[in-house]
Fold this sequence. Notes:
The structure holds two protein chains of two kinds.
Chain A: H1 27-46, H2 51-74, H3 76-110, H4 116-120, H5 133-164, H6 167-181, H7 185-200, H8 207-231, H9 235-243, H10 248-275, H11 280-285, H12 304-313, H13 319-351
Chain B: H1 2-13, H2 18-25, H3 31-35, E1 43-52, E2 55-65, E3 70-74, H4 81-88, E4 98-106, E5 109-110, H5 118-124, E6 125-128, H6 140-150, H7 157-170, H8 174-177, H9 190-203, E7 208-212, H10 220-233, E8 238-242, H11 246-252, E9 255-261, E10 268-275, H12 276-281, H13 286-292
Parallel strand pairs in B: 2-10, 3-8, 3-9, 6-7, 7-8
Antiparallel strand pairs in B: 1-2, 1-4, 4-5, 9-10
Helix pairs in contact in B: 6-7, 6-9, 7-9, 9-10
Amino acid sequence: MESATHPTQAGGSLKLDRGTGSLPTWATWAVLGGSAAVVAAILLATGAFTVALTLVFGTVLSAIVLYAWSRAVEGPRRALDRVMTLWIAAAFGLAMIPLFSLIFEVAKRGIPGLSAEFFTSDARGVVGGGGAAHAIVGTLVITAVATVISVPIGIMAAIYLNEYGTGRLRRALTFFVDVMTGIPSIVAGLFAYALFELFLGPGIRLGVMGSLALSVLMIPIVIRSAEEVLKIVPNHLREAAYALGTPKWKVITKIVLPTALAGLVTGVMIAIARIVGETAPLLVTTGVVDSMNTDPFNGRMQNLAVYAYNEYRSPGVMKQASYDKAWAAALTLIAIVMILNVAARLVYRRYKTEIR
Amino acid sequence: MLGAATKRSAPEDSKGEMADSRGVTATSTEPVTAVAGQPAKTIEARQVNLFYGDFQAVEGVSMTIEPNKVTALIGSSGCGKTTFLRSLNRMHELTPGARVEGGITLDGEDVYAPGVDPVAVRRLIGMVFQQPNPFPTMSIYDNVAAGLNLNAKKVSKAQKDAAVERSLRGAHLWDEVKDRLDKPGAGLSGGQQQRLCIARAIAVEPEVLLMDEPCSALDPVATLAIEDLIGELKNRYTIVIVTHNMQQAARASDVTAFFNIEGTGKPGHLVEVGPTQEIFTKPGKQETEDYVSGRFG
């Protein structure tokens, strides 16, 4: 900015100051607005106006104009910098579009289906009415059981990999954990089904089977995130504890885990958010049911994802009511995931330790 | 955690209980005189070879580290001083692939004998590191009490309070932190953190204190405070200090051991060891003289 007030000729000794000036602060916004207006006008004239086309061509035109203007005034380096900044911002905006569009759409279609009844009653023996309470409870129970199974196994595996594992075994385990993260979720569901079928006979459907299937998906995520977090606990803290004559297990439980607590909790929350919306593995393990069931060890159990799928796939006589409930279930699911994410952030902020 | 710590440190804050707290610390206010003359332990190294995998870092070090004296290990970077220091309390073996040959004894007991628990060795031989490393999750109080809390034996709260005060006084930190024992240790300045680490190390009452360049991350004032402290601690402990700072070795130590290295990739070895005065004024070897007079290289 200040260089603009110094004529370059006067500062002849200042070889660094090659720019002949700089654009005003409003330049970028003016170019963006102007380009959008020009593109919109042309599109309107040709009768092909859409918001998306305006944004795309407006951005391209802005980049060209901004580059030309900036190059003329500020020189090529700053011109390139402005154009790159614009492109990066545009790429970010592009990435955000699906997210906001999705949330907007689900909210728009889901809100009509939300009602007191939706949260308080199940769908047993009703036509058109009924709620998703059984699905909400089922989702929470199945996810909670899956978490109870996965978190101890995942964190202990991560402790093994980071604190004990060496050489080939460690590398092999890391490799298989990576492979596990890529398992298609339906395979996890079929695995759980096949396992329970061995003992309880064909056609078995239980809430806990769904939890087991979800655990198969969740464990590798927990291991991966926990391992990363344990890795950044500085070694000098472990050494300080060892130098006090502390046994290894206490170094891990009293020093390493507390230091990593915030990261571990965040990792678990993200893993939960990842599996809470699973549909396919639950379809084959927990089944479809219309009535409330809070016992994961007895009988079929509904959950939100399968509920939404089912309401949409086979709506009853009152089609629109079923569609509304499907969207409302989707919205509820997104809300649960968002709450978990916010909770993860709060926990992280509350418990994070400054690690140097 | 913090709540509990506040409760524990409450007696020190309230005037009414001051007498009590004094009573506990009457003997510990001056730990130096109380136990002065009580001999600490001698460390004896015989033909120690240290390896990291295939790489030999230290070759054939034999020396006696005398009790109640400050022994300084000096030498250029990479000559194996720190590695040798870490082998004394079996910290060396924590590095994957690290190996020890030869013998190290503490008052005649082989610390590497089969069946000796390295955890037990480290309780007798404490260590202070180059970077001050208080535990970030713990308060000042809990940092000092960490050794007592983390070791298997149960210690009563009163004993713990006494040990914390004694150690903090011993590390010249008590007056600066007595009103905020429940605050995190990471909030202290670098020099205070290092004294906190020294307090933490002496809280478990070791026989020997190893210090790995304890002042290299500190400013001159904090360095002086630590050096004064070292001079006092030797009345109670055997102290081994690694330092890059030759003035520090000259100021703070009684015995100096000079380590050197033939060249890159070669193992470090002990050139000579003797009274600090002698090493710095009339060393036995030309190599040493070149190093201490700054003509090295």
